[in-house]
What does this fold into?
Amino acid sequence: MSKFQPFVMERLLSKWENQVDYNLSESGVHPATVRELIPEPEQVEQLLSTEFVYSQANGIPELRERIAALYPGATSENVLVTVGCIEANLLSLQTLVEPGDEIAVMAPNYLQVWGAAQNLGMVVRTFDLSSDRKWELDVDSLSQAVTDRTKLIAVCNPNNPTGHIMSSAEMDAVVAAADRVGAWILADEVYSGAERLTDEQTPSFWGRYDKVFANNSLSKACGLPGLRVGWIVGPPTEVDEAWARHEYLTISVATLSNQLAAVALSPEMRPKLLQRTRDYIRRGYKIFEEWMQSQGDLLSIVPPGAAAIAFPRYELEVNSTTFVERLIKEKSVLVAPGDHFNVDRHLRISFGLPAEYLRSGLERIHQLLTEMAN
Ligand SMILES: Cc1ncc(COP(=O)(O)O)c(C=O)c1O
It folds into this structure.
């Protein structure tokens, strides 16, 4: 059997996120409560009489319709409901690419697709968002990474960990590269709706090109990661093929999650959840920015356009995993090391958190930075 590539960042988070005093490793905002989602007694009553059936395996009709309504021209035939975007991404690879095929993955990135593709026996090339150019797409590196053998191009937009939002020109460049070789685009769009500076939602790759799987979830922009609801939106034939793989993996999303997800995406609730997320991001980034300013030349950053994460560079002669291991042990704070995105000397720090909690966590990071600088 070939060597297994573990998902190193999720391994670190799973082990420590509930052990430390301050968890600043999440990329979404502080999660919403059941009460915020279903505030009315009649809604609670309705949920209490839900039977624990296996729900409709590809997602209950009401939910699929609400998801489809977010994508111009889509119908529920285009939608498969999955256990988070994590399942959507894995099914996308299993459906659209064969072992031995080549794929091109954006870097830096949440390394799920990068690692899972290797575990599925695919050949993975990467193309860059350039740190020298405010994390903009490096079109030359894209051209080099996409060859005649490329079957799929994987992007994360808005990007984790940098928070970069691609411009129309950058998106067009990805579409042109895919079109040149007939590749699919796997667009992980989980941070769309979690913008910091605008209320305009980041546009989807859906509708820009025929061979697109647009994947998303309720975890980030809606602040509901524990519901474990995500989806694929794509052409009906391939979505059906992904459904066939979903039956092997999870059968269906939990019955209650299907129902609560339909509530979350209702025309009344969705805008409230998005506003809640943006409020957390905007309030939190102000606190983070003040903290950054007090760190002198030790830290520098390209401000993120979206997501509740900052990705500063630090000027210390220390590897990022070593730094994070000391941070956990000595200060009981968890952040994600740049190493886990294949970019050393960076830390991914979340700021979509209650103010006092965030300030206290940042203060402890400051303590370790100064101790190590001296
Ligand atoms: C880019 C990206 N995709 C997918 C996921 C998985 O999210 P979920 O399965 O909760 O939707 C994450 C989680 O952090 C992520 O950052």
